[in-house]
């Protein structure tokens, strides 16, 4: 599903990640790693938000450099700590992202209700709590018809009910053919969220630590 080759990312000539080869088959893949190990850097690179050296190819045919629009149309990203222009409302942001991701109107409404953001959707984002921001970012992460969704710490700041909603939605989306790369410092019950592989970001690289189903 995602092929990584000769990936290399530096900040100001300081190497953060070097991955000679990594192959993520269709499924749910868990990335672990200590604070500052490079998980967000990897997610932001895969999302097409950061420059890097090397190649990323989705589904064997969408190369991030050769087919940048087709690739980005199929890769969605939910940030760990989303930062949006404070003067925009969630509704304005969702409309804009939905257009770029070619999301149909019924899907927009369904996600707004699923993550429970309708009550504050027309209020400026600058007034949101961290949980309200996170829910907004999750609506954005599921818009369109992605093949791959990157979720960086999808469960932080969420209440218990919304945590369950997120886990259920990931599982259902997986059944519909969407793959996931997730990072979380929180453990998740393997019976609720079947994980196909677990990877660790350490020593400036990314390595698989298990291919077993479940954590
Ligand atoms: N814009 C940047 N400029 C310079 N260095 C950066 C930048 N962003 C991240 N780094 C550095 O890259 C390294 C990896 O950071 P990253 O945010 O990817 O880690 P992480 O694994 O997501 O951490 P956490 O679990 O705390 O979220 C850290 O040493 C960090 O200081």
TrEMBL record:
Signal peptide residues on this chain, from the entry's feature table: none
ABC transporter domain boundaries: 2-215
A Pfam family it matches: ABC_tran
Any one GO molecular-function label of the UniProt entry: ATP binding
Keywords of this entry: ATP-binding, Nucleotide-binding, Transport
InterPro entries in UniProt: ABC_transporter-like_ATP-bd, ABC_Transporter_VariousFunc, P-loop_NTPase
PANTHER family, A to Z: ABC TRANSPORTER ATP-BINDING PROTEIN ALBC-RELATED
Protein name: ABC transporter ATP-binding protein
Species, as recorded: Larkinella punicea
Lineage: Bacteria, Pseudomonadati, Bacteroidota, Cytophagia, Cytophagales
